[in-house]
Amino acid sequence: MSASNDAVRELIYRSCRCLDTHDFDGYIALCAPAFRYRITVYSPELRKEMIWLNHDRDRLAALLAAVPRHLARLGSLQRNATVYTIERDGTEGPARVTSAFSVFNIDNEGRPSVFAVGHYHDTVDVGGERPLLVARNARLASRDLGIGSHVPI
Amino acid sequence: MPSRSAATWERPPPLPDGHYVSGRVYHDEQIFAEEREHIFRKVWHFVCHESEVAEAFDFRTVERADVPLLVVRGEDGHIRTFINVCSHRGARVAMEPGGNARTFTCFYHHWTYDTEGSCVSMPRPEGYDHTPIRKEDMGLREVKTDVKWGFVFVNLDDDCAPLDDFLGGALDIFDRVLPNAELEVFHYHRAEIDANWKAYQETIVDLYHEFMHVILRDTQMPAASMDDREMRTYANGHVTIAGLKADYEKYVGWGHRDDSTCFPGLEPDDARFAPLFPAQTFITRGTVMRIDTVQPVTAHKCLIESRGLGLKGESPEDRMMRIDQHNEYWGPFGRNVTEDAFAAEGCEVSFGKGAALRGIIARDEGGKGQCDSGLRGFWAEWSRRMGRPASHPTND
Ligand code: FES
Ligand SMILES: [Fe+2]
Question: What is the ipTM of this complex?
């Protein structure tokens, strides 16, 4: 039996929550072994597509595991996502899921500001017991990310 | 040593001028205004790489010293720069960050300019028949432009010295690379951060802050002797740093770079820095180049533009390798640049309203190791151009 659309939606939301709370093991557990993570964005300056991060599951896991060693931005990031569409080829084939996200930075004084806005374009394996992320393209619409972030979006 | 009282805290440090910087330089509004006139409107500015305007009629819009600029390659192949302001009533002419256009029509009253800056048409020109206004005299204001190894520089001062005089040989640190490589920009981002422009630029010249970066502690500091480093200062406040090495695989999750396709003349572990005055930095790390510029926005905000460059015409695999290696250190999700911006914002908190009175730049390691000679070179040039010593820039 393939995973339901509700389970797919929960996967997307869980992935956001794991990054929000720095539960990086939990995030990696949502990813299939062949997982590919990318952050992409179009540059109207260069009139070119750009890739701002490109990792397989192992390298992403290493990057996330090293986050606590770094001098990271203060406060926290909070991801708000909405699943727009879930497209399935057949019952067992991977689903293509498009979600909107906005990421807020909450600084140490509790002040919120918008960090980034864009869409997740996800490929989700729905054939197993529980759905797994096979690929995520975090596609940015905004491009000025201030000081940036050690934690992906 | 005990903590300090107000008297000892406020007393200038027992150092010569030039070995410390007054906190005023980061927040004084008069100083900020003068920087625009005495520095940013006088120096040569890197504005883009020629690959950003590769074809005839390609253009880029940028800002330098609060002046909007239009950089465009003409039909004759020459790259020219104009102030991006309409001669009629001052509207901005080209709006897009980049594109390709044979002419630029101002949105407001449709005066139209060609890629050589001539005003080629104005609607209903007979309305000016009773005045001396003729389209032939209404071209865009051209700005001095020169191209060095594919880097496009402009200068808003028509009386400036030539670009090569300004550079004074500082870019020659790349002379094994750049004359032999055709480069292409693959990464561009801009970021406004809450810091005075100098606080960010200082992070590039300051080698002592290597300790702040995990990746530099892991990969750079153990890779070569501090004595192998060579920090040089040049006329006009430029600095170069060579002799840095990196063992990239020492950072968990990163790979060897030994098999990587390097820039010509560079080894995979070879890092070279050229922070040019006032705030434009060229860096190579074996396989990839980064160029940063910093523009003042207010005394408390600056705009960082950051580019990554690879080799033109390289294979998709090599380009992807270069993008990945660029992103390891740099870009908004890089392990390094984010921390430098954090540092600049962290100093703004204390310098921005005057709580921090001074910064000490007195380390002397003879241009090796983590010497402050580069910072002193930067501040000496700042002091010269501003006519104010950075250690006590105001009379009080
Ligand atoms: S302001 Fe440009 S045409 Fe009038
Ligand atoms: Fe740094």
Answer: 0.96
